[in-house]
Amino acid sequence: MRLETDILSEVHALWQPCIDCLRNGERPPDYTLLAPLNHRASVSLQVATDYILRLKKLAGNNWVPEQPPRPALGYVGFDEVVRRDATGFDEFIDKSLTEARFSTVDQSKWLFSHSGMRIPSEDVFNHSYKEAIINRLKELGRSQFGQY
After folding, report:
1. Are 123 and 110 in contact (CB under 8 A)?
2. Is 129 helix (H, G, I), strand (E, B) or coil?
3. Backbone phi, then psi, for 134, in 5-degree steps?
4. Strand partners, 113
5. What is the DSSP string of 65-102?
6. What confidence tens digit (pLDDT) does each residue in 71-130 have?
7. Is the pTM of this model over 0.70?
């Protein structure tokens, strides 16, 4: 109960400051108890309430989610998410493939496991590290590495 009260207090305390920052083109303050939702510019009361309900449900289930997360698409490929009997079936991806909005790209040359590149090739190093991070830092004074 106390956590719920504290989360709702945080939402009420930061709602207006977040809105003000967005209006002024400034970075909004980070949430503490709602840190997993910091990817949002602001958290509404409804979003916080949904978050609290999910936490309660997880706690009641011994912190085990009801279903495992879908495997990373780059790891399993489209086959695993477009088979209607597959655990991770995704209707949006299935429709996008059917309508040729998506196409398959063999990434096996670069990606070796879901957890990342165990031994990146020179191509991956040059593209991912040099072009996307170092050159951007030089050109822009900042990098979007790790950003959405």
Report:
1. yes
2. helix
3. -65, -50
4. 116
5. -SSPPPPPHHHH-THHHHSTTSTT--HHHHHHHHTTSS
6. 555 556 677 667 777 666 778 888 888 898 877 776 666 555 544 444 556 666 666 666
7. no
